Amino acid sequence: MRSKEVAIARVAFGEIQAAFPELTMILDLEPEHVDVAMEIPAQPGLSFPLHLNLQNRDELHLSASALWVEWFPCTDPSKVSQYVEAVSGLISGRFRILEHRRGTRTIRAELQRPGGTQWETLATWSTFSLPWPAKTVHVVRNVAAA
Prior knowledge:
The protein is about 25% helix and about 40% strand. It is α+β, with helices and mostly antiparallel strands. The protein has a five-stranded antiparallel sheet, with helices on one face. α1 (about 5-20) runs parallel beside α2 (about 75-90).
């Protein structure tokens, strides 16, 4: 285990826990496939689960709904700050996930924050998609906290 990077992730997870003490968050220091992980289940105050982890030595990952994005290297303090802001923004309801779907399959998910009169995209996940059926848009936002 890489102690420097794990320590950085634990500090970031601790900041998130301190900002939302009313939420249950489960820290796993020895997960099977990643370096360290934290689960934040759906619960009163959070309408969807989040999974946070450190993997591949220096990547801070966030997955929620269809979104899966990473910030690296975690040794860059600005990347850690962006990560904590993204997770906190989703939990607080200030940020949202905009999912683009073809049928019931999500083909693109964007992490967005308010930016004046429009939403600003901070991170994007996408996969290969055929041009049918027609694309629809779905918003995932923590309304319990907003």
